[in-house]
Amino acid sequence: MNSKKIIVFGATGTLGAHIATYLKKVGYDVYAVGHRKNDNGFFNDWQIPYTSIDVADRVQFASLPQSEVSAVLHFAGALPASMEGYNPELYVSSIIQGTMNVLDYTLKSGASKIIFPQSLFDISYLFGTKVPIPADSERKAPLTGDHAVYVIAKNAAVDLIEHYYQKFGLKRFILRLPRIYMYHPNSYTYTNGKRCVISDRFLINQAIKGENIELWGDPHRLLETVCIYDFLQIIEKSLLSDLDGGIYNVGSGGSTLKERIEEIIDVFSPKHKSQIIYRPEKRSSQQFVLDIRKTINELGYVPQYDWRTYLMEFKKEREQQSFKKLWGTEEDYN
């Protein structure tokens, strides 16, 4: 790419903010775009222009750069993890209509590449074993549950992007994302529209207090584990790639539930360490691991963060609060 001007949609989100600031650090000319009306001056501190638009409204795209853009990173859209109650229309408007508008803008701006996050749940029918799931597995949306319409919308967006590749030659890098692990002051998520504590944040807080920690079900269940910095490596390598792209799994090989809890205790417990209480009669975690050979072979991805190194980064960021101006503090979410 000759131009290094890139547009990051969803820039105030957990992934988008990291993407925008990281790419600025490595030399890209970043334009941040978010739904929030006010970023509290966060991006100005990074010398990154910030524009607020609703991606479902194509008229608002006129306020963005209209030429010499090299790539668009489309991380905007409603998420089940942040949706209180249930409003599936938001998935249709922000993801399907939003992606159509972003694609039209991408072509008009001169960009030759789009990067888009795909839901992990398009392959949820393959969950339940330790067999790595290939990147090009058939995409199937679940037809029940709080993720159904969300995944239907994401699959439609991926199909739209593929159409623009076939018709216009727009290079597309579709990144299938499990949960990307990072520190965020908000330790809550939404499941079926109800607010609840993120499981590993609950375990970390127990370890800090030196309380006993229950390990439910099979302790050897394998869970995909991706640190934000490995994810950012894949983002950068996608931008640098001369390939036309495709679907790529974002993963690191995973870690077992037992390994996770042992490392949480080791990193966060005081001298009086938490004890693990095994509860095999309880429901086991859903296990899965992604096959990342395509990501390694085509993009040159080299995973660098295991669960322990992620926890050390979490601990450091919890002290530094690098995104405090954008996201606030833990007290703001309690």
From TrEMBL:
Signal peptide positions (record): none
Record-linked Pfam families: Epimerase
Domain of life according to the entry: Bacteria
Gene3D superfamilies, A to Z: NAD(P)-binding Rossmann-like Domain
Domain NAD-dependent epimerase/dehydratase: 6-251
InterPro entries: Epimerase_deHydtase, Lipid_A_modif_metabolic_enz, NAD(P)-bd_dom_sf
Protein name: NAD-dependent epimerase/dehydratase domain-containing protein
